[in-house]
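Re: the multi-chain job from yesterday

Posting the exact lines I submitted so nobody has to dig through the queue logs.
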Amino acid sequence: MALSKKSKEAFLGPLNVNNPVLVQILGICSALAVTVQLKPALVMGISVTLIVAMSNVVVSLIRKSIPTRIRIIIQLVVVAALVTIVSEVLKAFAYDVAMQLSVYLGLIITNCILMGRLEAYAMSNNAFDSLLDGLGNGFGYAWILVVVAFVRELLGSGKLLGYPVIPQWCYDHGYENCGMMLMPAMALILVGCIIWAHRAINDEKK
Amino acid sequence: MEHALSLFVRSIFADNMIFAFFLGMCSYLAVSKDVKTSLGLGVAVVFVEMITLPVNYLLQVHVLEPLQLGYLSFILFIAVIAAIVQLVEMVVEKFSPSLYNSLGIFLPLIAVNCAIMGASLFMQQRVLLDHENVKAIANIGDAFAFAIGSGLGWLLAIVALAGIREKMEYNDVPKPLQGIGITFITVGLMALAFMCFSGLNI
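And the result, structure tokens for all chains:
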């Protein structure tokens, strides 16, 4: 199946050049808060991707019958319904992860990526392109989460996905986990550094 | 009363919305370019928080819990917030045009500010806590104290960052780091500083 250039752009753009977290600075709250460990970050990334894609499709399908004045409330209700479904599913099948994510799961509703994509894309494009745009933005968001969580869990507690990866002899020779990585402040500084690297690389290309 | 006061102080410093929970980051980073605008947004957040949180508290305790409709809380809370923001906007526009002119542009932004929704969700968790717990919200007074405290904490954070960013204009920051990159690192350092409040107890 050949995709039009626009569809390709809708999917690939947000992965790097137009990344929602690094370039558009959207959805920062949750990106920082759930990245202490890799597992909640992965779950969060997947949940957000699903919700962005689904809500983009739904809003795009009903976009012609939404009155402009109350569109924000309608969008919020669509998103809130989807978030409720995802959170109930998580509570049923992955209770401890759901507890770890705590309020941040509910806060997907107010995640700016969702409102931003709905307003900027789904309201004026067809359902298929909106789906691709949603998936692209979701993945763009998820990979940042995974990178930050990878660094924080590896350096902060010497584990990945809950399994110890730093061998014992390192500890025997005086290696210590950097407890500071577990603090909220380091998430901010890490994201700052990723943005720095991202800008430096992308500017060179130009 | 003592409990409410302690809750109030804790929610400004130790449980600061920005530095401890990263809530309301998007508008925090986007609107903190100068002190005056950020003060406007901060006041609007305190204002909306002060109204929505007690309303959501009453809904949680008197409607959702007795009827066991906890799973509807997301939809209900966000609808309450969106509706109240709209209402506040209309009331302010009618009765105080000057306040409307200074707050007006920020009010719609606030409906999707995570700090507001986040405070309501924290409230939902804290209602269930034991009354002895310093974080517990046991009555409507506590809900008020928590609302004002977390609103003020947010205001404090955004005004402080705006002040630093105004001064930073004159600094020589590496080019790719300029703008948003250095802002992140600044906020990180501020969060580190705020961590010294974490043992605060009254």
